[in-house]
Amino acid sequence: MDRRALAVRTRLHLPCYADAAGQVSYREAVTVVVSNAARLRKDQRAVRDLIPRREYTLPDLEFRQVGEDADRVFGSMHYLRNARRGSLNFALVDKNTGTPLTLCSASPLEWQRVADQLLLQFGVPQESVWDLSRVYSFDGAPPNAVSYLLAQVRKYFQKRGGVELLTTAVDPNLGFTGSSYLASNWQQWMTVRARPYLYYKRKYMSIREMRASFPAIRSIDELCAADRNATRSFAELHDSLIFCCRIRGATERVQPADQHRILR
Question: 213 with 192: CB under 8 angstroms?
Answer without folding.
Answer: no
